[in-house]
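Illustration: V-type ATP synthase beta chain.
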Amino acid sequence: MLFDLCVEDVVTAIEGPLLFLRRNVNVGLGDAVEVTGASGRTRIGRVVAIDGDQVVVELLEDTTGLGVENVRVRFHGEPMLMPLGPGLLGRVFDGLGRPRDGGAPVAATVERRIDAGVINPAERGLPQDFILTGVSAIDVLNSLVRGQKLPIFSAGGLPHDRLATSIAQSARLLKDDGLEFAVVFCGIGVSHDSAEAFRSAMEASGALEHTAMFLNLASEPTAQRLLTPRFALTAAEYLAFDEGRHVLVILTDMTNYCEALREVSASHGEIPSRKGYPGYMYSDLATIYERAGWVEGGQGTVTQLPILTMPADDISHPIPDITGYITEGQVVLDRGLDHKGIYPPIEVRSSLSRLMDQGIGAGFTDPDHPALAAQLFASYARAAQVRILSSVVGREGLTATDRLYLDFGDRFEAEFVQHADMRELEQSMAIGWQVLSLLPAAELTRLSDAQIAAHIRTEGGDDG
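Result:
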């Protein structure tokens, strides 16, 4: 039950976003706090540290004009809550779940803690069923499965924002099970221009009608970034488990979240770990990523597509490294492909969806989908090897078959990986079969004779 405790003249110091208070009430870590200064403006905060005679409150808004005198602090006695109810979709919220679109607050029917625990492993169902993203390199080769968490590893300057918007606009279930599909789009530490671009693109495409957007701006206090994905996921869980929807959550950029975590940790005086990030970053990220999934016997699912930019293009950096341990694969964007003008610049050899087999094949997509994916991957890997050899001996020094692999690699990138518009799965698969037709049938060792006869029109030589 909600209760308020009010105390006055207890602030002993203010350091950045931190308020140091004399402890004369019983409070708990994470409890919500309201701080009102002499001007009458009320700011939101939370308790981040407690010792014998002191309480530390972290404000989630700026402390401009706030002094140590004439400050009134109200403790709610419980963690931060988010009001939830019908009407979440089609709305734009800030990083603390407050309307940013000028509309009225959501008519709440329930309030939920934003730091809710992850799904009980004993009750968690195995992710299954295919989610169409409209991106060929993901749909055919690194399929996203309902209930999965599949991150996108990008880098500075690569078009991950464009890709995130495109997926948010076009994502849907391939199989209709009677439940509606919804998207929760969460921008963490984004610029004002990027936030407006996200909102405008979703609104212009009509996708905003089935989307709830949470936009935390780079100009807003750092501490807000730690709560923005939790507000977004709380809304997603309500849409999934209360309203019975399949929800895709897009989180961008998780690197901004981790940088905020490092900054806040340093301000608290905590001992840093690898590259200055707190030692608990793994468990902290797990409290976000592990909120994806579904409950056995229940309706509704939460699927996550977190996006992060790898500092210095380093996939072994703590942020992508830890994320890879928690999640079920990764989709990697490549700067070399981007320099070639290929969009989306997805490097399929470095990408992996560990749960792909749970969502493709007979009964899910197409019976020949697994074989096509395996053959495309194997052929492109061989083309990459031939490119290295060609750089040494030249094209003329290659065998006729190796030259076909060179051509296959170029066509695979230009025709299959590259596309500006959303593709249906059938269209992506048709292009896959088409580029494989460049190779001799004898090279298509991952396909059966029946599949070759049904789909391959050999251009690269005899049929074996």
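Reading the tokens back as a structure: The first strand starts at residue 5 and ends at 8.
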